[in-house]
């Protein structure tokens, strides 16, 4: 058996501890599979005195994670500190400069700083492995980069945030609104005290940016993504969507659009109506799912736990095993210099159907006024539901449109919001029929 | 860019041609991803004169595939001839002896002769890559061997044969019986003229044997699998199953059973009742799905097209790309010498619930007689449906049991079959509640 692979772990939160535990508990099995032992040699966290319920005395302790990455006698650094800048970035840069591989669960780092870090890896002849950064224990990074490497991918989409999916699932099951279920999710540990990263779609967008870079071998500018979260989804929307044959999910979608003269990428995260018989409609609770449409393989879906210590550690240790076997790939599937520069479709040009819910005071003429605005903007209505019937009480007016550019929807909504009898800006969600 | 990887293709049926076409049509994309061109240099099939709708004039032609494997100046041989012996086996043996890698879609070969061939690969320092042998375009071999390599797998199960799944789906949709739908499937090209391999469960068993070897790093004796097909499933069974909250699917299942003193593997393929809300119940038509329960990653499911030229070629070319990148793994995850010898649980010891349908003449006392037999064998009844009520007409008696050993069920069925009023041997299917 070959010499051990020496591992340093930066960050000892839930995931970091689970990585250390997994490497220790399954040491023999992993050595058999890797062809060599996988040995933790050093660890780092901010507070050395804290009792973490795990004996760490056999490993060299570093208070300074970046110093560990540079100086510990190791082959590989696991970065599970988190954050797109500061220590996490420094740890990765130091590790690569010192000729160590990096294994990370840090989606923000990859999505925001991947462009800086990946060339460092290429230069050092090392890799930044990031299976754990997308969809937890689901081996989608490997699946996309290697398992589906023969495919020209047309679309990759999915449910990429378990917190949002849990909240939407519970809103549908209980009929309660976002705020109530968010509190429940926080109590259960499915949502952070500050939930913004999850519920505003940022976390899903980080993952989507990584998936898109791999799927299309393209340089993804994170700022070019359209990102919306789920705070605007109400229990009423979920109910209306169901009535119309859809479910509302937070969807991340990256699509290759053949263009004239140049192709474009559509890159968006937001609540969307998906067909109730489609593959994503039945992915409930904290599960994640990723679907890839490839020209040869057709549609492939992968489902599993998108977060948590065990699943994330599973992905990290799988990456470690690959490195131990000498099987490393460029971070985004091709060397950084080979990544394509692709235009991103402005969201205003997204063409498709929309769901619109306006709260209106039920006075004569409101519907006529609203219909005229839609007509003037060439927005054609496929179906309409009006619910609530006491005079002068607000009623919900729900409209499903035919395919139309998002720009026309935006113009129409500005005008509709200005109508006196319309109580607030209407709620608008994309309908994604092609995900069915 | 490095020197080209030279490829010889043995077999020019649908899959072989699709491989050649994919390598040609996506040549630049594949070269970018592989870091080197992937060049077909030689092809072989029985009939050189046949028009295959593809220009093959640029490749050296061999009438003798084994000679090509031995003599063509290539780095890798794609074997898509099929069959567990004869030419296919000879091609693989010759290729490995000559120091070429093998990429194959041949599940029979791997399941039946893997034990002979894998050591040849180990000795030659080459690999037999077999992503295409299991579940078509779904990257489950890679997912299991690499993506989930950090996991002690407890169970791997799934829908591994698209023909059977199509037939069962259509039987449920139409209420028609097996024979009628088989004819339909044959007309649509979803079933072979001789459907035995598919409908008798042999094809699914080949795939299960490969998955089990990888999941458990164990030597799998193909003869140790329990294999049943779907000919015994009737439209009535599908209807009763639905009434009871289940769907009937052809399930392949490999389970690690902690034992005293030694662990065992359960290895079986057969029609089974799975919970209607479980992950497999909604996999319809020709789709395949594989579920892996890992100790760290939890439950991961992969779904996709299990057959067809495009999906199979997708898997083959992904394997070729891995080899071009120098990323090869032992066939079953660890070197052949390291595969564990594990006992297989005799099917008589399978413990779980069962579905039983007996056709009985509705005479007084039949139910009492039948119940007494079940009681004597300690088979406890969870629910019972009796349907059909005209005197002296055959009626269906459907029983769902509590957990019981299969041996007791077999003994009880032998006695029940001997009852005069029971018209034929009852239909018995396993219920697999843990797959829900």
Plain-language structure description:
The structure is a homodimer of 436-residue chains. Chain A has 436 residues and is α/β, with parallel strands linked by helices. Chain A has 3 domains: 5-133, NAD(P)-binding Rossmann-like Domain (Rossmann fold, 3-Layer(aba) Sandwich); 140-305, 2-Layer Sandwich (Dihydrodipicolinate Reductase, domain 2), CATH 3.30.360; 348-435, 2-Layer Sandwich (Alpha-Beta Plaits), CATH 3.30.70.260. Chain A has 14 helices and 21 strands. In chain A, strands 7, 9, 10, 11, 12, 13, 15, 17, 18, 19 and 21 form an 11-stranded mixed beta sheet that branches. Chain A is elongated, with a radius of gyration of 24 Å. The model of chain A has no long low-confidence stretch (mean pLDDT 95). At the A-B interface, helix 2, helix 6, strand 13 and helix 12 of A face helix 2, helix 6, strand 13 and helix 12 of B.
Radius of gyration of chain A: 24 Å
Q: Tell me the total number of β-strands of chain A.
A: 21
Mean pLDDT of chain A: 95
Gap between N and C termini of chain A, in Å? Answer: 49 Å
Give the low-pLDDT segments of chain A.
none
For this structure, the CATH topology of the largest domain in chain A is Dihydrodipicolinate Reductase, domain 2
Strand percentage of chain A, roughly? 25-35%
Identify the biggest protein-protein contact and residues per side. A-B, 57 and 57 residues
Counted up, domains of chain A total: 3
Task: Please estimate the helix content of chain A.
Answer: 25-40%
Known CATH architecture of the largest domain in chain A = 2-Layer Sandwich
Overall body shape of chain A: elongated
The fourth-level CATH homologous superfamily of the largest domain in chain A is: Dihydrodipicolinate Reductase, domain 2
Helix/strand class of chain A = alpha/beta
Query: Could you give a short account of the major beta sheet of chain A?
Result: 11 strands, mixed
What is the chains' assembly state? Answer: homodimer
Q: Helical stretch count of chain A?
A: 14
**CATH level 1 name of the largest domain in chain A:** Alpha Beta
């Amino acid at each position: 058996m070959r010499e051990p692979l020496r591992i340093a772990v930066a960050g000892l939160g839930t995931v970091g501890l689970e990585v250390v535990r997994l490497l220790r508990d399954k040491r023999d099995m992993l050595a058999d599979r890797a062809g060599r032992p996988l040995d933790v040699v050093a660890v780092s966290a901010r507070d050395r005195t804290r009792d973490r319920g795990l004996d760490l005395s056999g490993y060299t302790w570093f208070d300074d994670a970046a110093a560990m990455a540079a100086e510990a006698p190791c082959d590989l650094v696991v970065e599970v500190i988190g954050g797109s800048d500061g220590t996490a970035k420094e740890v990765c840069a130091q590790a690569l400069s010192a000729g160590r591989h990096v294994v990370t669960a840090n989606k923000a780092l990859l999505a925001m700083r991947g462009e800086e870090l990946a060339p460092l890896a290429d230069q050092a002849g090392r890799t930044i492995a990031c299976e754990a950064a997308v969809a937890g224990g689901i081996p989608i990074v490997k699946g996309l980069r290697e398992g589906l490497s023969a495919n020209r991918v047309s679309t990759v989409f999915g449910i990429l945030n378990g917190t949002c999916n849990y909240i939407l699932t519970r809103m549908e099951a209980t009929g309660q609104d976002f705020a109530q279920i968010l509190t429940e999710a926080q109590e259960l540990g499915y949502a952070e005290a500050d939930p913004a990263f999850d519920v505003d779609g940022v976390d899903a967008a980080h993952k989507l940016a990584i998936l898109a870079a791999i799927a299309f071998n393209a340089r993804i500018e994170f700022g070019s993504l359209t990102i919306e979260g789920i705070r605007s989804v109400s229990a009423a929307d979920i109910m209306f969507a169901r009535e119309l044959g859809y479910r509302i999910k937070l969807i991340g979608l990256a699509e290759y659009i053949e263009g004239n003269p140049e192709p474009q990428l559509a890159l968006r995260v937001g609540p969307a109506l998906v067909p109730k018989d489609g593959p994503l409609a039945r992915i409930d609770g904290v599960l994640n799912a990723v679907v890839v449409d490839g020209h040869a393989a057709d549609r492939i879906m992968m489902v599993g736990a998108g977060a948590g210590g065990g699943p994330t550690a599973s992905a990290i240790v799988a990456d470690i095993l690959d490195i131990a076997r000498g099987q490393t790939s460029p971070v985004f599937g091709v060397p950084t210099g080979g990544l394509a520069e692709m235009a991103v479709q402005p969201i205003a040009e997204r063409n498709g159907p929309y769901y619109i819910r306006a709260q209106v005071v039920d006075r004569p003429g409101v519907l006529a006024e609203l219909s005229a605005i839609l007509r003037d903007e060439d927005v054609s209505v496929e179906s309409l539901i009006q619910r609530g019937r006491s005079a002068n009480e607000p009623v919900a007016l729900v409209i499903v449109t035919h395919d139309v550019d998002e720009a026309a929807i935006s113009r129409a909504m500005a005008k509709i919001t200005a109508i006196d009898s319309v109580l607030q800006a209407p709620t608008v969600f994309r309908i994604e029929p092609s995900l069915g």
